[in-house]
Amino acid sequence: VFQLSVPLNFLGSVYRELRQSLLDMETLFNLQKVNIAVKDAPHAKPLELKGGEIVFENVTFGYHPDRPILRNVSFTIPAGKKTAIVGPSGCGKSTVLRLLFRFYDVHEGRILIDGQDIRDVTTESLRRAIGVVPQDTPLFNNTIEHNIQYGRISATAEEVLAASKRAKIHDIISSFPEGYQTMVGERGMMISGGEKQRLAVSRLLLKDPPLLFFDEATSALDTHTEQALLGNINSILKEKARTSVFVAHRLRTIYDSDQIIVLQNGAVAETPGSHEQLINSGGVYSSLWAVQETMPLETENGDGATTLR
Ligand code: ATP
Questions:
Q1: For the ABC transporter domain, which residue ranges apply (predicted)?
Q2: Of all protein residues, whose CA lies closest to atom 21 belonging to ligand 1?
């Protein structure tokens, strides 16, 4: 009995962690609204991560058969680098992230992570490898501490504190009378959109996954706070050589990416490259940049008014 209880206890805690991370994903992506027809293949194996390279190979996908969102799309997101996906509203940027989580299967083509077709790996191992700051972060009816700790339930209070400092939210939390014990969520204190985003970033930093996705993660922040937070995120990503994908409207938040992919009308609009390369090639990106650069700074605060919409 004794011999058995040890591994069972261990399995129990692994199970709880897994359950938690799945709950996390489901809540974050509001799965009620998403049709999850995706099942593990009988031969599915756990994802084996090497550097975290992502390849879209001739991917065609649409939510409805008569309305394709991505048409024969191919690109590579290099391992350990920062990639941005930009393009007009509705062009399928968030869809790329949803496909990577395998909330849907592609209709044609394939998606590879470190050479493995994501349809051949267990969805559990796939989703455990990915962390996301979604467009709208749901909060749980609980304390701020718990809401951050949700990223990794085994994290200590010190680790929560360190993550929230890096996410530039510690000072605000400390200014609340009840600090980290402040209740948030529907029945708690209302926190602003920008505070929520930073809370989501601290949650993600705590989870510390190999692949990190940021979907308009700083859109509700003023330019100054946004730059400070992005600076912190960038240095963590660099230091750990993590693969990251940023979806953004405001080009100024992603121009320092190693690679920028421009999506338009269901296709990759021009050969991906760095900001400099895309500006020099004088294509879609450079005209978008020119338009945004002439917008007054004030309209950039708050709601992402300076966008590609
Ligand atoms: P934005 O910049 O506005 O967030 P996006 O480029 O991220 O847009 P997606 O969210 O990927 O765009 O959506 C691409 C298209 O697919 C949109 O026209 C959207 O209305 C549609 N779409 C998204 N989710 C679904 C769904 N679950 N069912 C049907 N259509 C959907």
A1: 54-290
A2: 90
